[in-house]
Amino acid sequence: MIHKEGFPFLIYVLILILIVIWISTFLFSKLLNLFIFSFLIVLYCFLIFFFRNPKRKISINYYKDESKVLSPADGKIIGIKKTLENEFIKKKCICISIFMSPFDVHVNRFPVSGKIIYAKYHSGKYWLAWEPKASLNNERTTTVVEMKTKQKILFRQIAGFLARRIVFYAKKNSLARKGEEFGFIKFGSRVDIYLPLDIIILVKKGEKVIGGKTVISVIP
Predict the structure, then answer these.
(1) Strand 181-185 and strand 166-168: pairing?
(2) SS3 annotation, 21-48
(3) Where would you tag: which of 30, 51, 56, 144 has the fewest CB atoms within 10 A of its CB?
(4) Quick check: 105 and 56 in contact, CB under 8 A?
(5) Residue-wise pLDDT tens digits, 119-177
(6) Looking at the annotation, which residues are catalytic?
C-alpha cells in the first residue's frame, strides 16, 4: 500500500519525469536517453518504495497489557539515555531515540493508548537527525499521551537533513490507540520517546525495531 501522504508527491514527480523524458528525446542521443530513462525509473521506484505503508495487525495482547510500550517508528535505536524533558513533563526521563533512514517505513504509530493531553508543532532547522541538538533545534512535533494509569508518555517527531515535512494527526483531547498511525515524516528522520525512570528497557543501542510491533519497554 502507498501512504496517503505520498500520492500528491508521486503524481507531481511522475509528471516531471515524463516532461524530462519528452524533452531529452530532442536533445540527446539514444544511448544517453536510455541512461536517463533508466535512472528516472529507478528513482521513481525508490520513491514508491519510500512511501509504502504496510498493513500491520497489532496483537490484542498489546492492547490489553497497558504496561507494554511499542516502538513508535521503524528504524535503529541510536540512543538510550537519562535526560531532562523540559517542554512538558519537566523532569528526568529515559529517552529512547530511533533513527529512520530513507529505506525504513516512515509511518509513525502511537506507542501507548490513552488521552492526548498535548500536541504541538515546532518549526526549526534541519540538522542531521542523529545529532543530539536536533531534538530541540530541528523542525519537530511533540505529543503527550496520558495513560489510564496516569503515566504521561511524551514522543517527538524530528525532521532530519533530508526531511522537509512532518505530518502529524494527533489532536489534543482525542484518544490515542496503541499501534495506530499518528504521523508521517518524509525522508530521513528520527523519533524520540520519553519514558519514566523506572521502566524496564527491552532494547539496546544499535538494535532494529519495527513500529507498532517491537515492544521497547515495560512500565512497572
Answers:
(1) antiparallel
(2) HHHHHHHCCHHHHHHHHHHHHHHHHHHH
(3) 30
(4) no
(5) 999 886 666 655 666 566 678 899 999 999 999 999 999 886 655 578 889 999 999 99
(6) 189
> What is the distance between the alpha carbons of residues 83 and 68, in angstroms, rounded to a whole number?
21
**What is the chain's mean pLDDT, rounded?**
87
Residue 169 CB contacts under 8 Å (≥ 6 apart), including other chains:
181, 182, 183
Phi, psi of 174 (to 5 degrees): -90, 170
* pLDDT tens-digit readout, 65-84: 889 999 999 999 999 999 99
Cell numbers 545529532 label which residue?
Answer: 131
Are residues 192 and 135 in contact, defined by beta-carbon separation less than 8 angstroms?
yes
Whole-number Å distance between alpha carbons of 148 and 92: 21
pTM for this prediction: 0.84
* SS3 state of residue 115: strand
